[in-house]
Write a structure and sequence with these properties.
Oligomer: single chain
Order of helices and strands: HHHHHH
Shape: flat
Mean pLDDT: 86
Low-confidence stretches: none
Number of strands: 0
Structural class: mainly alpha
Helix content: 55-70%
Largest sheet: none
Number of helices: 6
Strand content: under 5%
Length: 141
């Protein structure tokens, strides 16, 4: 099926296919926010068919990508191992590591910094602020 002729309807179908709620997709596609109209549009046969097609394409792409890339990397790794020698083993090691990373078996180290801010409707006194955050440099007079 070709894209819908109406650009806003096509965008709506794409957004729904990506997992957005119909009402949100309706507004984001450029229509005036209206839940009933969003539901009505999502129920139209041509729009439903387009959403189904986009979802099917996305699922096939995701499935094929992971399976194909993994298979190709395995093939490269095995061929490099057969070749042997330092260069071949280096290529094989890199390919096997890529397979492991792609399939979630290895995670690169990364720094994870979580900052938690509490929001209060009661302002801090200057003494409380200084106790929690320390004196400021240069200060505000």
């Amino acid at each position: 099926m070709a894209p819908l002729r109406n650009g806003r309807r096509e965008r709506f179908a794409q957004l729904v296919a990506e997992g957005n709620a119909a009402a949100e997709a309706y507004a984001e596609a450029g229509f005036r926010a209206d839940r009933k109209n969003a539901h009505r549009l999502a129920s139209e046969p041509t729009v439903r068919a387009r959403i189904a097609e986009l979802q099917e394409r996305g699922a096939m792409r995701a499935e094929i990508t992971l399976a194909d890339v993994t298979a190709n990397l395995k093939r490269i790794a095995e061929a490099a191992e057969e070749e042997g020698g330092a260069p071949g083993l280096s290529v094989a090691r890199a390919a096997w590591m890529d397979v492991a990373k792609l399939n979630g078996l290895v995670v690169d180290k990364s720094e994870n910094v979580n900052i938690h801010h509490e929001i209060s409707d009661k302002p801090m006194s200057e003494d409380e602020w200084t106790a929690q955050y320390g004196a400021s440099e240069g200060g505000a007079g």
